[in-house]
Design brief:
The protein is mainly beta and about 240 residues long. It has two domains: about 100 residues, OB fold (Dihydrolipoamide Acetyltransferase, E2P) (Beta Barrel), CATH 2.40.50; about 110 residues, OB fold (Dihydrolipoamide Acetyltransferase, E2P), CATH 2.40.50.140. The chain is about 5% helix and about 50% strand. The protein contains two helices and 13 strands.
C-alpha cells in the first residue's frame, strides 16, 4: 500500500487515455520538493459511467493549475513511457494556492535489501517492495527507495532487517540514477515495523512478479547525499 497527498502543478491539460483496457483521464504534473528540482508525476482518474469520482474535477483543470491531490501511488511499468515515474491514481482533487506546500506519503511493504549508509555516514537507505495486481493473475512489484537521517537512519540500519514488513511515512524527494534519470525517494519522518524479517534468509518480496522502478544498485547516482534537505514552497 502506498498513499500520498501532494500540492502539484499541472504540466498538461487533462486528456483521455486507455490504461489496461479502461478509460481514464490523465495529466502530467510536477510536485514541489525540498531542492530546486521538481519531480514529475502522472495523475490519473477512472472515468465513471455515472460521472462520479475525481474524474470530473480533474477534467475541469487546465495546464499550470495548482491542485491538491490525494490517492494511491505506484511506479510506471518497465518498458513504458512512464518507466519508474510516480503515478497517482486519484482519490480527491481540489484547488491549491501558491503558498501551500504539502508533500506526505506513506508506504507499507517489505524491505528488499540490507540497509546501506551513505558515503558521508549521515543517512541510511533501503528499498521497499510493494505488491499490486494488474488484473487477476499479473502481480507487479513497485520498488520505492527510502532514506533516514539521524535517529531514523539508526533505526533503519540496526532494527529493520531485510524482509521486515514496515510502514514508512515521509516526504517524497527527487534523486538521480547513475544514468542521470530522476527517481522518487522517501525522506523518512516516521518508521514502524509490523513484522521482523530474518536478514539474509528472508524471501525476495518481488519473487514471481514483475518489478517496476529500479534495481538497488542503480540508485547511486551523481548527486551525493549530504545534509538532510529542507522543505520549500512554490515561490
Amino acid at each position: 500500500m502506498t498513499t500520498a497527498v501532494f500540492t502539484a502543478r499541472l504540466d498538461t491539460t487533462p486528456h483521455q487515455v486507455v490504461v489496461n483496457g479502461k478509460e481514464q483521464l490523465q495529466a502530467h504534473a510536477s510536485i514541489n520538493i525540498a531542492t530546486q528540482e521538481s519531480l514529475p508525476i502522472v495523475v490519473r482518474a477512472w472515468i465513471s459511467s455515472k460521472g462520479t469520482g475525481p474524474a470530473p474535477r480533474l477534467q475541469a483543470k487546465k495546464n499550470e493549475d495548482l491542485v491538491l491531490i490525494s490517492g494511491n501511488l505506484q511506479l510506471g511499468d518497465k518498458g513504458t513511457d512512464e518507466d519508474g515515474c510516480l503515478i497517482m491514481n486519484l482519490a480527491t482533487i481540489c484547488d491549491a494556492t501558491p503558498d501551500q506546500f504539502i508533500n506526505d506519503a506513506t508506504i507499507v511493504g517489505r524491505l528488499g535489501n540490507d540497509p546501506k549508509a551513505s558515503d558521508s555516514g549521515k543517512s541510511v537507505s533501503n528499498s521497499i517492495a510493494v505488491n499490486r495486481w494488474q488484473g487477476k493473475d499479473n502481480k507487479l512489484t513497485d520498488w520505492f527507495k527510502i532514506r533516514g537521517w539521524g535517529y531514523n537512519g539508526e533505526k533503519l540500519q540496526e532494527k529493520f532487517p531485510k524482509g521486515s514488513l514496515v510502514a514508512v511515512n515521509g516526504m517524497i524527494e527527487a534523486r538521480r540514477t547513475r544514468q542521470d534519470k530522476l527517481y522518487p525517494e522517501l525522506k523518512i519522518r516516521n518508521l514502524t515495523i509490523h513484522a521482523s524479517g530474518k536478514g539474509g534468509s528472508a524471501p525476495d518480496p518481488s519473487k514471481e512478479s514483475s518489478a517496476s522502478g529500479y534495481d538497488h544498485d542503480q540508485f547511486t547516482g551523481q548527486n551525493p547525499v549530504g545534509d538532510m534537505p529542507q522543505s520549500s514552497s512554490w515561490s
